[in-house]
């Protein structure tokens, strides 16, 4: 697919307000500040498509984008943001779980984590929820430009090792929105999920 033609469709305050459960959907999830919005912008070659910020918790709405008719991308709000009251965190985690388990048109989950701080509890929870629903998972170790090549490779191998015994389809790649690392792998995976 040509990801450069991606356009914004709508924002929803929560999962219940998303457009109807139709077409093929791929969601980007990850902790606040992991680089989800930056990754979407890099993938689509559009700097201002998804709003990015130095302040964690920037994306509080669920944003939906259309690559081509029937092929949608979802930018989920980040989880694990310390400044959010516990009650809101728990509520949001529950609705993320529901989305992963109930959204029929969801075909795959991209879980983004800072390559320097990967696989926190909630990251593992996201992966488990997706795999329980038989969804394939692409783990992107973001901000890979922050590590030298040797350390980067070691980190990728470590996370591959951590996920290799999971029951399901999990691929792990290094990614950098800044340097363009891993962009081709993401496009290839998404193409596969959109056209099985
Ligand atoms: P929330 O919407 O708050 O959940 O955050 P997000 O996951 O969408 O992160 P966002 O894309 O807004 O990026 C957060 C910060 O990380 C910004 O300051 C980005 O410039 C920075 N960042 C994102 N990707 C990269 C990258 O590949 N390399 C480097 N060095 N910085 C990055
Ligand atoms: Mg964001």
TrEMBL record:
It comes from the Bacteria. Residues 22-196 form the EngB-type G domain. Its cofactor is Mg(2+). Keywords: Cell cycle, Cell division, GTP-binding, Magnesium, Metal-binding, Nucleotide-binding, Septation. PANTHER family: ENGB-TYPE G DOMAIN-CONTAINING PROTEIN, MSS1/TRME-RELATED GTP-BINDING PROTEIN. HAMAP family: GTPase_EngB. Belongs to the TRAFAC class TrmE-Era-EngA-EngB-Septin-like GTPase superfamily. EngB GTPase family. Necessary for normal cell division and for the maintenance of normal septation. This is Probable GTP-binding protein EngB. It comes from Photobacterium angustum.
């Amino acid at each position: 697919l040509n990801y450069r033609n991606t356009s914004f469709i709508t924002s929803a305050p929560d999962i219940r307000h998303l457009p109807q459960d139709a077409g093929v959907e791929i969601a980007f999830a990850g902790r606040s500040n992991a680089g989800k919005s930056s990754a979407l912008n890099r993938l689509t070659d559009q700097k201002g498509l998804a709003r990015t910020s130095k302040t964690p918790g920037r994306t509080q709405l669920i944003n939906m984008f259309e690559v081509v008719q029937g092929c949608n991308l979802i930018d989920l709000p980040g989880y694990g943001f310390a400044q959010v009251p516990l009650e809101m965190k728990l509520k949001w985690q529950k609705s993320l779980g529901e989305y992963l388990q109930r959204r029929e048109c969801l075909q795959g989950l991209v879980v983004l984590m800072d390559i320097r701080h990967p696989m926190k509890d909630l990251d593992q929870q996201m992966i488990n929820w997706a795999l329980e629903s038989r969804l394939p998972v692409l783990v992107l170790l973001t901000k890979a430009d922050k590590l030298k090549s040797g350390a980067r490779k070691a980190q990728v191998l470590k996370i591959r090792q951590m996920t290799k015994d999971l029951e399901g389809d999990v691929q792990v790649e290094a990614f950098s929105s800044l340097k363009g690392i891993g962009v081709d792998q993401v496009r290839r995976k998404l193409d596969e999920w959109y056209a099985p």
